[in-house]
Amino acid sequence: MQKPVALTQLRVACSGCNLRELCLPVKLTGADLELLDELISLKHAYQRGDYLYRSGARFQSLYAIRTGFFKTQVLHEDGREQVTGFQMAGEIIGMDAISSDSHACDAIALEDSEVCEIPFVRLEELSRRLPSLQRHLHRILSREIVRDQGIMLLLGSMRAEERLAAFLLNLSQRFSVRGYSPTSFHLRMTRQEIGSYLGMKLETVSRTLSHFQAIGLISIRNKSVELNDLVKLQTFVGPPPQLL
Amino acid sequence: MQKPVALTQLRVACSGCNLRELCLPVKLTGADLELLDELISLKHAYQRGDYLYRSGARFQSLYAIRTGFFKTQVLHEDGREQVTGFQMAGEIIGMDAISSDSHACDAIALEDSEVCEIPFVRLEELSRRLPSLQRHLHRILSREIVRDQGIMLLLGSMRAEERLAAFLLNLSQRFSVRGYSPTSFHLRMTRQEIGSYLGMKLETVSRTLSHFQAIGLISIRNKSVELNDLVKLQTFVGPPPQLL
DNA sequence: CATAGATTTTGACCTACATCAAACGCGTAT
DNA sequence: ATACGCGTTTGATGTAGGTCAAAATCTATG
CB-CB: which of A145, A153, A197 is closest to B145? Predict the structure, then answer.
């Protein structure tokens, strides 16, 4: 079931990684960066559908996504699932597991992906020696908290149209930061997964996307989206005009 | 507006605090605990309605709640608000601010409260020297992430009845850990605040509570609740029986 | 302790979204 | 090429919870 194929052990380390600016090494330089390189030597490849980790599994490492796309989900014992996030290159995953030494959610590859393993005990050691790394680790943890709060706002107080608009804009922004087009991209997840993430049914996702397309806001065919008007899309995040 | 009245500077420090087991000092002993004491010397008192901090304010410290009750909320620019949590004694608040050096939410006292200020830079310094403190800080940050994921599950995939049952059980459990009755307590928040937190309108909160009372599950009068059957309440968290 | 304002409850009605169902498109295997 | 299966779209209908409104109750203040 789990297929962590150890990839090239070639030193394609942080110092040479083009995600340096986004990922864990932010602001590290020279000798400090080399110390981090030593720590993060293992790369693993995952195929679409593979689990990076499962809920309940013993916690040992954080993972930095090098390439590809993951989703994280929590399962309620009654079988209901909630997608808690979609992660892309440069993002760190697995932080929920620190609190209990075991993973609190599943992480599943949505396409063929590569991750760097970050043994957490060693990361803690190193961050004791490098204050700037320590600070950055804290920022990453905190950023996750802020992200989650944003999703609470979305789930707790937005309507379906707003949620979907916010979702598309969020993806757009993240692709943009990574040098991809902010207006044209592939959704790696199903309507069902989007729906789970946004607290709505897949049919509602589909209908709402169709509606956006009908009014010319987006063009969508299967998993390819084109955002035709980012500014107008932004106005959909917020109460309908007549209520202002 | 903000009234941080510096309280007694008497050394009512961590080492003598009865929240020691719940709060930041977990597992610290002897000399290490004294180092933490030095750091956390400032106590502040807040009255009901006071802001502990506001969204956008510069980040300097985390806060440990000594006594009282707070809520945190994020405001959407259009005025909608989402309550993101209710915090009680022994809980650490303000961690969302680490990522951007400014607070991402408001924290407001729901009753007269006291907090210990934890200057974050100094906490980082100390946690570089004390691995067990470092680990605990990471756990606290991670625990917040897990908590938020639980709320996502709640908001994204539960019905009103389930959310409210889960909410009451969560409070029950937290009071219990603190030595208070798990079956009889005061809600410090309004129906509106509960509703905001749980993603429903105050009328729905009120109706659902009335319903729980009608079937003998709880007794509620204003803000005093009595949980008459914790086990049965638990069965309300989960899909309705006919779907199993 | 009287009054005003907030909070809560309850009722009647409405709507956004869910549910159920059918048809369609597309990728993959035979 | 054909068929199977999964994901998606679209339509028809149902309902949980929202909205609006009024009454009841609580709380704070002079």
Answer: A145
Query: How far A52 CA sits from the closest chain B CA (Å)?
Result: 18
In this structure, which amino acid lies at residue B52?
A: L
Query: What is the topology classification, in CATH, of domain B7-153?
Result: Jelly Rolls (2.60.120)
Domain ranges of chain B: 7-153, 159-234
CATH of domain A159-234: 1.10.10.10
Structure-token pair, residue B240: 């309705």
**For chain A, percent of residues with pLDDT exceeding 70:** 93
Q: For residue range A148-202, what is the model confidence (pLDDT) as tens digits?
A: 999 999 999 999 999 999 999 999 999 999 999 999 999 999 999 999 999 999 9
The yes-or-no verdict on residue B243 having pLDDT over 60 is no
Judged against a pLDDT cut of 60, whether residue A77 lies above it is answered with yes
Distance measured from the CA of protein residue A201 to the C1' of nucleotide C20, in angstroms: 13
Q: Record the pTM.
A: 0.94
- CA-CA-CA-CA torsion sign (B115, B117, B120, B124): negative
Q: What is the DSSP secondary structure assignment for residue A97, as one 8-state letter?
A: G
How would DSSP label each residue in B113-150? EEEEEEEHHHHHHHHHH-HHHHHHHHHHHHHHHHHHHH
Residue pointed to by tokens 């209520």: A243
Residues in A closer than 8 angstroms to B127, CB to CB, are 128, 134
- Taking the CA of residue B79 and the C1' sugar atom of nucleotide D20, their distance in angstroms comes to 21
Neighbour tally for B209: CB within 10 Å? 19
Q: Which residues interact with strand C by a CB < 7 Å criterion?
A: A 159-161, 199-201, 203-204, 221-222; B 190-192, 202-203, 205-207, 209-210, 220, 222-223
Nucleotides of strand C under 7 angstroms from a protein beta carbon: 7-12, 16-21, 26-27
pLDDT one-digit tens code per residue, A202-234: 999 999 999 999 999 999 999 999 999 999 999
| pLDDT score for A239 | 73
Is the C-beta atom of A191 closer than 7 angstroms to strand D?
A: yes
Give the CA-to-C1' distance from B198 to D8 in angstroms. Answer: 31
Query: Given the structure tokens 């922004």, which residue do they identify?
Result: A173
What is the distance between the alpha carbons of residues B46 and B66, in angstroms, rounded to a whole number?
A: 11
Query: What integer pLDDT is reported at residue B241 of this predicted model?
Result: 59
What is the average pLDDT across B115-137?
A: 96
Phi, psi values for residue A152, rounded to 5°: -60, -45
d(CA B191, CA B170): 16
